[in-house]
Structures are given as structure tokens and as C-alpha cells.
TrEMBL record:
<dbReference type="InterPro" id="IPR015878">
    <property type="entry name" value="Ado_hCys_hydrolase_NAD-bd"/>
</dbReference>
<feature type="binding site">
    <location>
        <position position="237"/>
    </location>
    <ligand>
        <name>NAD(+)</name>
    </ligand>
</feature>
<feature type="binding site">
    <location>
        <position position="125"/>
    </location>
    <ligand>
        <name>substrate</name>
    </ligand>
</feature>
<dbReference type="Pfam" id="PF00670">
    <property type="entry name" value="AdoHcyase_NAD"/>
</dbReference>
<feature type="binding site">
    <location>
        <begin position="216"/>
        <end position="221"/>
    </location>
    <ligand>
        <name>NAD(+)</name>
    </ligand>
</feature>
<dbReference type="InterPro" id="IPR000043">
    <property type="entry name" value="Adenosylhomocysteinase-like"/>
</dbReference>
<keyword id="KW-0378">Hydrolase</keyword>
<dbReference type="GO" id="GO:0033353">
    <property type="term" value="P:S-adenosylmethionine cycle"/>
</dbReference>
<feature type="binding site">
    <location>
        <position position="184"/>
    </location>
    <ligand>
        <name>substrate</name>
    </ligand>
</feature>
<feature type="binding site">
    <location>
        <position position="53"/>
    </location>
    <ligand>
        <name>substrate</name>
    </ligand>
</feature>
<keyword id="KW-0520">NAD</keyword>
<feature type="domain" description="S-adenosyl-L-homocysteine hydrolase NAD binding">
    <location>
        <begin position="185"/>
        <end position="346"/>
    </location>
</feature>
<comment type="similarity">
    <text>Belongs to the adenosylhomocysteinase family.</text>
</comment>
<keyword id="KW-0554">One-carbon metabolism</keyword>
<dbReference type="Pfam" id="PF05221">
    <property type="entry name" value="AdoHcyase"/>
</dbReference>
<dbReference type="InterPro" id="IPR036291">
    <property type="entry name" value="NAD(P)-bd_dom_sf"/>
</dbReference>
<feature type="binding site">
    <location>
        <position position="340"/>
    </location>
    <ligand>
        <name>NAD(+)</name>
    </ligand>
</feature>
Amino acid sequence: MDHHIKDIELAPAGKKKIEWVRREMPVLSGIAAQWKKDKPLEGVQIAACLHVTSETAVLMITLKEGGANVALCASNPLSTQDEVAASLVKDFGINVFAICGEDRETYYQHIDEVLERNPQITMDDGADLVSTLHQKGGSRISQVIGGTEETTTGVVRLKSMAKAGQLRYPVIAVNDADTKHLFDNRYGTGQSTLEGILRATHILLSGKKVVVVGYGWCGRGIAMRARGMGARVGIVEINPVKALEALMDGYEVMSMLDAAAWGDLFITVTGNISVIRKEHFLQMNDGTILCNSGHFNVEIDRDDLESVSVNRREAQPLVEEFTLSNGKKLFFLAEGRLVNLACAEGHPPTVMDMSFANQALSVKFLKEQASSLENQVYKVPDDIDMNVAHLKLSSLSIKIEELTPRQKKYLASWEEGT
């Protein structure tokens, strides 16, 4: 099977979407143009488990322009843009296994499909591809020279594997690049999360009490954007330093139980399990909205929510209404999956341009340097990170200052003082 998608006839609409976002991705497009000449990935087999969106399509096309053979599956059952999947197959000859709304069984069948192509390099978003490969083992894993990981959640899982001595090949944590998490996580997640919520609910954010659970880079971005739209923002954190930072950034900081009785809208971005549970649901106000922008649908405990509910119905597409035993109604978005991708289209291409440029250049780095790396999780090399930043500034026609020879000498010395 070369592909498994919803409908190949959706390709024309998908191609238009891809062409539209390419205009906002000049760094990756520039890499693709150069790679079309140089073919640095000639013959490399790549298995990718990423959100199948128009931005991801530009990355897949770039890898193919570089000479790679690419197979792509979805990293989330609800994030696939079916028309983009169709265009990748029909217009660009890329093997895609992804259907929006696929069940769990089909999701893992699609992961198996891309692994059956015996990849040399893996590209992951959440580490489901890598963990599946490691669990099934066999001869396939011995052919893999390295991989990349896009998300905070995936990096945490991979570092846990490495610490336990279970990671079988080196992985580059693209998420940890400055040109990824400082922009994609903060500005991309901040904007796209609120866009997903507004598309699904059409609520007015101004005046709402919004609780952001987790104050990492994603939480910072969401809180900043919510406040910018007039919301009153509360932060729930377990890390005392991040809690202090949130407080000094001007937000209310509170426990989850206190927040439950205070908030109107809850957004989880922790990467952890069951951060909103039974005792919290029972404290919430009538009409409270619950959603998640962390990678997996485990942050809001659905089993607990069902256990304290007497009725559930679909209020509108991707919005479930739960009537609790106390008579209050809670609204749960997108089954607890990534609200920015399930209810909207994910991060804007401008920020994904930098994230995926890091991905592409890290794949090239692995092809050339993987034999010298250990089975650990590595940062994106600094020269790649800085190069992506320079390329992005250049695409925006922005010039920055350069050190003079005297300044370089001063910074490298210790003799000069006051």
C-alpha cells in the first residue's frame, strides 16, 4: 500500500493550501531550492510521524527535493488535513498514511506502514513512532542511523529512554532549538490555541477568566495572547520558579483546586497526565470550557469527567457537553486532543518555517554525522540554530549589528577593566 488517505480527489484543494503557506515559509523554500541542485539526502529513507498539515507538506517536499524517499503518517488522529494528504500523494509522489478522525487502531497501523519502509532516519512529533519502533524491535531498528523530535512531550519521553539505556540511536531534539521553542511554542501555540477555541465556541475572550495550566513556553504564549485579548488570566504551576515568573509577569497564580472554582476557560499545556481531575470538575462553574494544547489527550481526565456526569451530548462539532451530577454543565473541546490542530489549522507558517528548517537541516546533519554520535538526545547544533535565525531575518529584510574587531578582542580578553 503506497498510501492510505481519505480521498485522492481532494488534491486540488490541498495543493492550493500548500502553495499558500509556502509564501510564508521563505527559509524552508530557500533550503528546498538549494537542495534540488545538491541532493544532500540522495537515497535516504525517512519515516515521519508529524501533523499532516500544509506546513508539514512544505517540509516533506523539501526532503524529497533533497533526494530522500519519504513516508509520512499522522502524529495525532484529529490534526490531519485530508486535502493536504491527497495533494502530497497525487502532486508530489509522497507516501502518506493519514486520515482525519482515524481510530486508535488505524493510527498505529499507519505508523507500522511507514516503518515497513525500513527507514534510516525517523522524524517524530511526540515519540510514538520511535517508541513503536523500539517496542517492536527486529532488524528494522538496526538500520536507523538517527532521528529528530519536534515536541517537548516527545523530548521528555526520549530522554527517559536514553536515561534507562533503552534508546537505540541518536535523536536531535529540534524542540530545544532556540529558533523553535522561543517562537513556535510561544507565538505559534499562543495564537493557534486561541484560534482553535474561538472557532469551536465563538466566545468573547474579553472579560473571561482564563486558566492556563503550565507556564512553560507554550503556557507563556497562551497567557500572553489571552491577556492581549482582554481576558483575566490565572496560572497553575508546580515549579516554584515558573510560578514566581508568572506572578511577576502580572498573572494570578493559584492551585488547581482554587482555579477550578475561579475560571471560565481552562487550557492545559503541561505534558503530564490527569492535571484536571474529578475533584476539580466538581468545583467548576456552570458553562466552564475545558481544552488541551499539550501533545497527548491525557491532561484532562476524561474518565473522571464521565464518572461525575449523568449525561453527555454533542453540543456542536468538536464540543461535548457534560452534565454533572450537581446539575452544572461543562464543555469539553476536541476530545481533549490538541485544540489548535483539531479545531483550527495549527501554528502559522511563519513560525513553522523556522521549526521545519531546523528539522530539515538536522536530518542533513544526521546523514553526515550520525556515526560519530552516541545513543543520546542531542540539541540542535548551535551553527544550525544561528543559521536559521540569520536566514529568517534575511527573509524579512532585517539587518543586525556585527561586532568590530576591537569588540571581539575585548570580549575574548580579561585585561581591560574600568
